[in-house]
Specification:
- Chain B: The chain crosses the membrane at residues 61-80, 176-197, 252-273, 280-299, 376-394, 415-434, 483-501, 522-542.
- The structure holds two protein chains of two kinds.
- By secondary structure, chain A is α+β, with helices and mostly antiparallel strands.
- Helices cover 52% and strands 17% of the residues of chain A.
- In chain A, helix 23 (551-556) links the parallel strand 20 (541-545) and strand 21.
- In chain B, the strands form two sheets. In chain B, strands 1-2 form a two-stranded antiparallel ribbon.
- In chain B, strand 3 (399-400) and strand 4 (403-404) form a beta hairpin.
- In chain B, helix 15 (407-433) runs antiparallel to helix 16 (445-460).
- The mean pLDDT of chain B is 92.
- The chains are: A alpha+beta, B mainly alpha.
- At the A-B interface, helix 10, helix 11, helix 14, helix 25 and helix 27 of A face helix 14, helix 15 and helix 18 of B.
């Protein structure tokens, strides 16, 4: 980012070489629902994923989820016992529903994975084996398959060629269609040197000729990693997921003990418990709901990122995003619109605003930079000056803006108007022996101090050369940023604005945007030092970057989001890549990370709370015959012991399917303090988890008792 | 005054007294365990045992200290009992049989004080004073030491060091337990408990016949029995015996002694981790459960139906008239929620549900407020589990007191909570399934099952109280309860110390608005709920077949 900004500030122009990131469009304050949680659930997916769900019954796959593995073993056991007593409808019913429980769990995972598969197929199409034109030492070319490339090879790509592998442009400039990976159809410019040199294999060159140095082995390219990622093949368990799995396994062991030790107790009490009943009790008690949905939640979390065009290289990074307590945000493009815009015309003594506006507009007609255009727009909006076109003025000689002159203007006869960087315009006036109004300097200083950039407008006519006034260019803070930062603050996240501006300018913008802190005149070293300082205090830091000199900081940050437009060094160093290259997305990434954890926690709570009702269904069913007093625990008034146990098992299976949409979508997340969030989620998933099964089991029991011959 | 009102007033007086002692005792203990200085007696002891109290220990070294010291204790106590017949001052009692000697040695070293013998009919002055009473002090000091090590794990960062076991052991004994117990013993003597070294007196009874009265250093042992949440009575009747617990006041005073250190340790914890509010939250969790249990117990014991019980003002069977239902309920709940195991009434004779409450109290894992030290570390383990689930629900990697609860921490906490349910359920199931152990049951039906369930619940959780009825002096019960006590004490300590080491090595995470606030009532409520649901779910089937079957009949 830094390099780009420096160029930009010097030249006073943003000859934006790539398609502007979303920064051009004010992000606004999108409703919370749109930000996190989208991704509709289509019931048809359940059906389509059914074959996969059966395939996942392989014990070698199942054993990865200890809870569901126990259910699988239980299903086998009850089936075996039912075969020994084929006349017992109860045994068969329990077996069937236990198998369904396992299938439902696999289905949840298969559905979550299925969503990525479609995307992976599209990517594979882009990856079709390409032919690479490898440059040989003597300058000649040879054609080899793309898979035969090694790191360091130089390849040539011309208009119409598909780039054979990831690499950096070392020669030339070309427009490239990256829609295969970003889904964005507008072409982008890739050129040698600087921060726009990285190209991705599978994308297509639309114009010109470039030479690319290959930086990645075939099979490990960006597109390969992306395919693995969206398919969930590369998914590794994250620390919190591992910890949760351990807790669930230990709860499973506890309930295994509680059930395994029950037969001697029951025998002593004078009743015999069958294997079917014991397995049913066990499956109801172990945390199957969360056990079944845990991996679907993880896959869906990654998928939500993919849907937002963010690729996380590891699940760990997504989880870390939820823990982030410091966000480093680049000013340009993230907090401000990225292009400074004209905000006012300030006349020097002796001229009027309208005169300045008129001169500024005329002199900016030949300035195609966003700043130049904003002058024309301001003149029109604020001073009602009709937008004129270059052709309207006869005999006018237009002076285009260039990075060298840093001025634009027009000569109409003897009247010459110039607008541009203060130094250039002053030099122009002095060359012509003109006068510089003493307050021009003062005004320019005032604008600088307020965080703006002054452009001088000067004229040379029969009265001589002189400065007319100053255009105040301002960094425009994106709409809704202040509210976002307030939200982040409530979530306990500190925002730090990183800018190359001087401290005065930086302070003014920081205050306007409402960030907590800023780092002015930031060098890559400063950024690195800031990250290390925050981390030493135990904080997790997230940042975005795209330049090669951002790479060390991206690697050091806990969450480093590289812009897809950036260099391959930056993309290697970060642990996420944003295909839209929209730095504001960091905030959404944090929210997705949090949502992932919340969904796991909420469903765990729900799962454990469910057990209370299941005991009230099953224990009286098992023992009320020998200890009639225990029938007082049958507070649901279930119709018969068999029906009670079966209802609990059915509820246990159905709740998995019922919660699949929630697992895929994620628990609704709104930025709020931890206290409020806990109260809300405990209320919904804790209390709800206590109550829901009482109602659910009762309803199922009523339905079962309606079946003739049962209940 | 109605018995109910008397019960409530006793409860209030107790809470008042505990509240007065909370801050000074808690702060004092924090100073004791943070101080750099050694008093003269301590220096002599360090010289005697050859320990350097100033070296910092990693968790493995700390654990080695705990295990070595305790193993030596078991061996010494075992030999002392086995050789009792040849020792002076043994009142003519013979040596103890191997199985019972093992059981008793394990029992006193693990702070359980399960007794499969009658104190006045088996143990002479030497074993009682040099063996059992000494363990009453040091086993309690070991418990506090381990808790303090865990607290240091939270308080320290980027170090693996947890303090020095020998210093913690000696300080706990010399600066906390001995002085407080000495004062308490004087109070008990002043109120009528006995303290002498006289022999056995043959005393005639009003109704004819005769009775044996033992003398002994009863008041001093009674003081540490309660203060160190030990519970092993000098007499078989334990605190129901008038020589141990003569008046309603001493009854209340003994309950105070039982609760005062476990509760005050939450203050010590708060001070040492730098936030007394965190200590209050843990205290509030303990008190909520304790008060809830007392209220439930009083309700079941007072409200019992039946004309005889109503005439007595509640279920008086097995309770002393001088304590009444209120005093007995208060004692019964406090002793089972603290791993003490002293009794002033027979839990077997409580109503069915009342008996269930005493069992559930132990099944919670002795954490509300729990044994000295063990209560605090047990509660902190539950807090870690609760923080983990709640932490996920606020969208962050769970953290407690600035320390992240990751896979390693959860693994250790999960192992901790697995130990006692495994011991209780497996040993109970074996006792019910094997042919001979059920012969020990006095009663049949659900009550008989409760006797066995209670025995292993008590032993595995290091409580030590007995339900009465069960003949535990068989090779099976002596061996299994002995194993249950040892495993139930030291396996959790291994996990606690490993956890402490892991926490101490972490870099603290600063609290932000996104951090779960563990000092708030909401968290306390969550913790209470998690404790009740997790343990309730574990034992619900077993409880249903014992006390619930009986109580709901």
């Amino acid at each position: 980012m830094t390099t780009r900004r420096e160029i930009h500030e010097d030249s006073m122009s943003t000859a934006t070489p790539t398609r502007a990131p979303h920064s051009g469009v004010p992000t606004g304050h999108a409703p919370a629902e749109d930000r996190v949680g989208a991704g509709l659930f289509d019931p048809g997916q359940l059906l389509r994923s059914l074959p996969d769900a059966f395939r996942k019954l392989d014990p070698r796959v199942m054993v990865k989820s200890p809870v569901m593995f126990v259910v699988l073993v239980g299903s086998v056991l009850t089936t075996v016992f039912s075969c020994q007593d084929p006349g017992d409808w109860f045994g068969w019913a329990i077996s069937a529903w236990l198998w369904l429980t396992v299938i439902f769990a696999n289905l949840a995972e298969a559905v979550a994975e299925g969503r990525g598969k479609a995307q992976a197929d599209t990517l594979r199409k882009a990856k079709t084996d390409t032919v690479a034109r490898r440059l040989l030492g003597d300058g000649s070319e040879e054609r080899i398959p793309g898979t035969g490339l090694t790191i360091g090879d130089l390849v040539v790509c011309e208009a119409g060629d598909v780039i054979p592998g990831d690499g950096d442009v070392v020669e030339g400039v070309a427009s490239v269609d990256e829609s295969a990976i970003t889904g964005e159809s507008a072409p982008v410019i890739r050129e040698s040197g600087g921060d726009r040199s990285a190209v991705t294999g599978g994308t297509k060159v639309l114009s010109d000729r470039i030479v690319i140095r290959i930086t990645t082995k075939p099979g490990e390219t960006f597109i390969d990693r992306m395919i693995n990622l969206v398919e969930g093949a590369a998914r590794q368990k994250t620390p919190n997921e591992i910890a949760l799995n351990i807790l669930l396994a230990s709860l499973t062991i506890v309930f295994l003990l509680a059930c395994a030790t029950l037969p001697p107790f029951a025998d002593y009490a004078g009743t015999h418990l069958t294997m079917v009943v014991l397995v049913a009790l066990l499956v109801c008690l172990i945390p199957t709901t969360i056990g079944a949905l845990l991996s679907a939640i993880g896959i869906a979390g990654m998928d939500r990122l993919v849907q937002r065009n963010v690729l996380a290289m590891s699940g760990r990074a997504v989880e870390a995003a939820g823990d982030v307590s410091t966000l480093l945000l680049d000013k340009t493009g993230t907090i401000t619109l990225g292009n400074r815009q004209a905000a006012e015309f300030v006349p020097v003594r002796g001229t009027t605003e309208a005169e300045v506006a008129d001169a500024a507009q005329l002199s900016s007609l030949a300035d195609e930079t966003p700043e130049g255009r904003s002058v024309v727009v301001l003149a029109k909006e604020k001073y009602g000056l009709r937008e004129r076109h270059q052709g309207e003025l006869v005999g006018a000689e237009w002076i285009e803006f260039t990075a060298q002159t840093r001025m634009s203007g027009v000569d109409v006869g003897a009247r010459k108007i110039r607008k541009g960087a203060a130094g250039s315009v002053l030099a122009w006036v002095r060359e012509r022996g003109g006068t510089v109004a003493e307050d021009a300097d003062r005004i320019a200083h005032r604008i600088s101090a307020a965080g703006g950039t002054p452009l001088l407008v000067a004229v040379q006519d029969d009265e001589g050369a002189r400065v007319l006034g100053v255009v105040h260019l301002k960094d425009v803070v994106k709409e809704g940023m202040r509210e976002r930062f307030d939200e982040l603050r409530r979530m306990g996240i500190k925002t730090v604005m990183i800018t190359g501006d001087n401290p005065l300018t930086a302070k003014a913008i920081a205050e306007e945007a409402g960030v907590d802190d800023f780092l002015a005149e930031a060098t890559p070293e400063d950024k690195m030092a800031l990250i290390k300082r925050e981390q030493a205090g135990g904080k997790l830091v997230a940042m975005t970057g795209d330049g090669t000199n951002d790479a060390p900081a991206l690697a050091q940050a806990d969450v480093g989001v590289a812009m897809n437009t950036g260099t391959s060094a930056a993309k290697e160093a970060g642990n996420m890549v944003d295909l839209d290259s929209n730095p504001t997305k960091l905030i959404e990434i944090v929210e997705i990370g949090k949502q992932l954890l919340i969904t796991r926690g909420a469903l765990t709570t729900f799962s454990i709370a469910n057990d209370v009702a299941k005991y009230f269904a099953i224990i009286p069913a098992l023992f009320a015959a020998v200890y009639p007093g225990l029938d007082k625990l049958n507070i649901m008034q279930l119709s018969s012991p068999d029906s009670a146990i079966l209802s609990a098992v059915i509820f246990n299976a159905l709740i998995i399917i019922a919660l699949v949409p929630l697992a895929l979508r994620g628990v609704r997340y709104r930025p709020m303090s931890a206290d409020r969030m806990l109260r809300r989620n405990l209320g919904i998933y804790g209390l709800g988890g206590l109550i829901a099964p009482f109602i659910g089991i009762k309803i199922i029991d009523v339905l079962i008792s309606l079946i003739p011959g049962i209940g | 005054m109605s018995p109910v009102l008397a019960g409530v007033l006793q409860l209030l007086a107790l809470i008042g007294a505990l509240a007065l002692a909370y801050v000074p005792l808690g702060n004092y203990m924090a100073r004791v365990y943070s101080s750099e200085k050694h008093v003269r007696v301590e220096k002599w002891i360090y010289k005697g045992i050859g320990a350097n109290p100033d070296t910092e220990m990693r968790w493995t070294a700390y654990l080695r200290g705990v295990l070595a010291f305790s193993a030596a204790g078991v061996l010494f106590l075992y030999l002392l009992q086995r050789l009792q017949g040849g020792l002076p001052g043994s009142l003519g009692f013979s040596s103890i049989e191997p199985a019972q000697a093992f059981d008793t040695a394990a029992s006193f070293v693990t702070n359980t004080n399960w007794q499969s013998y009658s104190g006045e009919q088996a143990m002479g002055h030497v074993v009682q004073t040099a063996g059992l009473a000494v363990q009453n002090f040091v086993s309690a000091a070991v418990g506090i030491a381990v808790a303090v090590a865990l607290v240091r794990g939270f308080a320290r960062s980027r170090t693996g060091e947890l303090g020095n076991f020998w210093a913690d052991l000696v300080r706990g004994t010399v600066r906390v337990l001995v002085p407080v117990a000495a004062v308490a013993a004087v109070v008990l003597v002043a109120c009528g408990a006995i303290q002498n070294f006289s022999g056995i007196h043959e005393v005639g009874q009003f109704m004819g016949g005769s009775q044996q009265w033992n003398g002994g250093a009863v008041a001093s042992q009674e003081a540490i029995k309660e203060l160190g949440t030990n519970g092993g009575g000098y007499f078989n009747a334990n605190s129901a015996h008038p020589f141990e617990n003569p008046t309603p006041f001493t009854n209340l005073f003994e309950i105070f002694l039982i609760l005062v250190i476990p509760l005050a340790l939450t203050r010590t914890f708060g001070v040492m981790v730098g936030s007394v509010k965190q200590g209050y939250a843990i205290l509030a969790t303990m008190v909520t459960i304790w008060v809830g249990f007392v209220a439930l117990m009083m309700w079941t014991e007072f409200a019992h139906h039946g004309p005889a019980l109503q005439a007595a003002g509640g279920a008086m069977e097995g309770k002393e008239t001088r304590f009444g239902v209120g005093g007995s309920a208060l004692f019964g709940v406090s002793t089972t929620l603290t791993s003490t195991g002293a009794v002033d009434s027979f839990h077997s004779s409580f109503t069915g549900l009342g008996g269930g409450i005493t069992m559930l109290g132990m099944m919670l894992g002795e954490i509300a407020p729990g044994g000295v030290g063990s209560g605090l570390y047990g509660m902190l383990i539950m807090a870690i589990i609760a923080v983990f689930i709640a932490g996920l629900m606020v969208g962050r990697t769970p953290e407690y007191l600035g320390k992240k609860i990751g896979p390693r921490e959860i693994k250790l906490a999960a192992c901790y909570i697995l130990v006692t349910p495994a011991l209780v359920l497996i040993f109970t199931a074996a006792s019910m399934a094997l042919p001979t152990p059920p012969d020990s049951m006095l009663n049949s039906g659900a009550h008989g099952f409760s006797e066995v369930l209670y025995a292993f619940t008590s032993a595995s959780n290091n409580n030590g109280s007995a339900f009465a009825g069960l003949n535990a002096n068989t090779d099976w019960y002596n061996t299994t309860t002995g194993l249950a006590m040892l495993l139930g004490r030291f396996m959790p300590m291994v996990f606690v110390l490993a956890l402490a080491g892991s926490l101490a090595g972490q870099r603290p995470v600063p609290a932000t608005a996104g951090t779960l606030r563990t000092e708030k009532p909401l968290f306390t409520g969550l913790l209470v709920g998690a404790i009740l649901i997790i343990t309730g779910l574990t034992y619900f089937p077993a409880l249903a077949l014992g006390p619930l079957a009986e109580g709901l009949a």
